[in-house]
Amino acid sequence: VSPGRCWSFKGHQGQVVIRLPARVHLTAITVQHITKDISPSGTVISAPKDITVFVSLLGMDADGEEESLLGTFTYHVEKEPMQTFPLKNVLLPRAFSYVKLVVKSNWGNPWYTCIYRVQVHGRMENQTD
Question: What Pfam family is a match for this entry (predicted)?
């Protein structure tokens, strides 16, 4: 993870839809940003703050397919740069193909928000324990 090598978007709100390589029963999501120590400005105000996670089987724009909310959480810049959040509703009876990460705010940067890494955790639909 290097400063500036991130997925960035204009302003403090944005979203990304991730198509998973297989249908997955999701359990958690990990979000990463850089630390103040390696930030050229000495701040991490471009880090995401309030994040919501949705899932869908057919895609986020598919007709008739509703999104399922799996969690709303806060990325804390004073904690570790890589933070894992357990997802709610993990007992949903089906696996999903798409994850939508919605950033509702950042830590104060009015121009842009950066996310350095997103990891999705779970069990593939046909995987046995």
Answer: Sad1_UNC
Say what the pTM is. 0.86
Separation CA 1–CA 24 (nearest Å) = 26
Q: What count of residues does the chain have?
A: 129
Please report, in angstroms and rounded to a whole number, the separation of the first and last CA atoms in the chain.
32
Please give the radius of gyration of the chain, using alpha carbons only, rounded to the nearest integer.
Answer: 15
Per-residue pLDDT of the chain (129 residues; tens, 9 = 90+): 788 889 999 999 999 999 999 988 888 999 999 999 999 999 999 999 999 999 876 655 555 567 888 899 999 999 999 999 998 765 556 788 899 999 999 999 999 999 999 999 998 887 665
User: In whole angstroms, what is the distance from residue 68 CA to residue 58 CA?
Assistant: 12
Task: Please state, in angstroms and rounded to a whole number, the distance separating the CA atoms of residues 124 and 129.
Answer: 10
Domains and CATH numbers, the chain: 7-124 (2.60.120.260)
Return d(Cα 40, Cα 118) in angstroms, integer: 22
